Amino acid sequence: MMLISCDPLPRCDVYSFGVILWELSTLRQPWGGMNPMQVVGAVGFQHRRLDIPDNMDPAIADIIRKCWQTDPKLRPTFAEILAALKPLQKSVIGAQVPRPSASGKHEKAQSSRAVEDSAI
């Protein structure tokens, strides 16, 4: 979502990435029950942010908060976000994430290398 306080630059995309990361972490729809104009008012004018649950991984919560800085110049670059996410990749690899097979069914990854190749 583009707000008047942010030019169409990567730093606005960083804010949106923070929202997507929040969605993936909480499995909830952001700003549920609000129409788009209400979201613009809440975020763009009242500087409100989505609630970050206490049980969220602190490293993920920190990335999200940095992505949501009010001043776009204070937001991290995508290179900085990638550097912050890289250490978290090991925990995802260790979780044996299922991957699609040729038959269309999901199967557990046979090696961590296969997961690494498809990861960020």
TrEMBL record:
Name assigned to this protein: Serine/threonine-protein kinase CTR1
Keyword Lipid biosynthesis in record: no
Domain Protein kinase: 1-89
Taxonomic lineage: Eukaryota, Viridiplantae, Streptophyta, Embryophyta, Tracheophyta
UniProt key word Kinase: yes
Record keywords, A-Z: Kinase, Transferase
Biased amino acid composition, Basic and acidic residues: 104-120
Pfam families on file: PK_Tyr_Ser-Thr (PF07714)
GO molecular function: ATP binding; protein serine/threonine kinase activity
UniProt region (Disordered), positions on chain: 96-120
